Amino acid sequence: MPEVSLRAFRLDQPQPNDLVGNPVLVAGSGGGFEATIRLRVLDGNGHVLVESSLTTTNLTSAWQATLVLPDPVPTTRGVVQVGPSTGADEEPGMESAPVFFGTAIVPGFRSYFLYTVQPGDTLSGIAAAQAPLYIGTGFGPIFEANRHVIGDDPDLINPGTVLRLPSDF
After folding, report:
1. Among 18-27, 31-40, 86-95, 129-138, which stretch is predicted with the lowest mean pLDDT?
2. For the chain, what is the radius of gyration of the CA atoms?
3. What's the sign of the alpha-carbon dihedral 27, 31, 33, 37?
4. What's the whole-model pTM score?
5. Strand 77-84 vs strand 48-55: parallel, antiparallel, or unpaired?
6. Which DSSP symbol is given to 7?
7. Burial class (CB in 10 A: 0-12, 13-18, 19+), 71
8. Who wins on pLDDT, 72 or 83?
9. E strand or H helix that includes residue 20
């Protein structure tokens, strides 16, 4: 197999901290003539949830893949990785994007809505205003889907912050 530059692969989707569904849509560019691209999704503990590969047929190419996650997904956060396949278990040159698994946050996850935090808002208040979407779950799904902008304290949200409100419709 011809040697492939480790920088020959680019992961375009998902972007870092995307809220992904199931299946996970993965797209990028790069490769080499008949290069094999390794694709995998890891859970928040670093365990492989799904792994696949595809072969490019042009010297440079755009590619896409659909990776079906197990049901249920064991963690709310994970990582999508792509890169050259050399046959080794731990391969150098993997491009990674941390992601949030929508189906682990909201059963039946299909999409999300954007909401801009207003002065005086709380996560509980936002969740209550979205009834019946969050009845019985409180603000937990909103908190989990936005930890990359909220941090670890659900009581500290700032006006102007754009939140994702995960949904099953």
Report:
1. 86-95
2. 18
3. negative
4. 0.86
5. unpaired
6. T
7. exposed
8. 72
9. strand 18-20
Q: Token digits for 123?
A: 């996560």
Q: Which two tokens stand for residue 115?
A: 């909401």
Cα–Cα distance for residue pair 57/34, rounded to 1 Å: 5
Residue type for position 95: E
- Residue 163 has which token pair? 């939140």
pLDDT classification of 2: cutoffs 50, 70, 90: very low
H or E segment at 82? strand 77-84
Name all domains of the chain by residue range, CATH numbers in brackets.
9-104 (2.60.40.2550), 106-167 (3.10.350.10)
CA distances from 104 to 64, 75, 78, 119, 167 (A): 24, 6, 11, 30, 12
Average pLDDT over residues 22-49: 88
Q: What does the DSSP assignment read for 31-73? A: --TT-EEEEEEEETTS-EEEEEEEE--SSS-EEEEEEPPPSS-
Enter the DSSP assignment of 15. Answer: P
Q: Distance (Å, rounded) from C-alpha 19 to C-alpha 14?
A: 9
